[in-house]
Amino acid sequence: MKFLIILSLFILSFTTQACMFQPEGLVEKHIQQFLYFLIASVIVFFLIFIIRYLHNKSRIWVPTIAVLGFGYFPFTSYILEYAGLSGFSGACGQPGLVYTGKFLLVGLSVILAYELFKYFKYRCKL
């Protein structure tokens, strides 16, 4: 057991870093990555509703509830990041924004995969 704890802490130590001197342009790069993830999320968002509308107009509320569920944490994280309450300690730039964008895009991609599955299942029944 002690070996597993030491091994896991050793592996996790490679993912942390302390920022003594912030590289130039890192904040701008993080903001650019966040905007990329946000634009991709908006595109996926509209695809979710288009696919649901094509095969089941009466249950359009299902992806709405799912999007609200997946969107709660990224929205809260975004607000806390800009309020300065959830900064990553020792990190350079704004990695919280990048994490928020990734989380939102992954969540919406999961919903899109579900909607595509339901759509193709519906199409095969016809």
UniProtKB/TrEMBL annotation:
Domain of life per record: Bacteria
Give TM segment ranges.
Answer: 34-53, 60-79, 99-117
Instruction: Name the keywords, alphabetized.
Output: Membrane, Transmembrane, Transmembrane helix
> What is the protein name stated in its UniProt record?
Lipoprotein
Q: Which organism is it from?
A: Pseudoalteromonas aliena
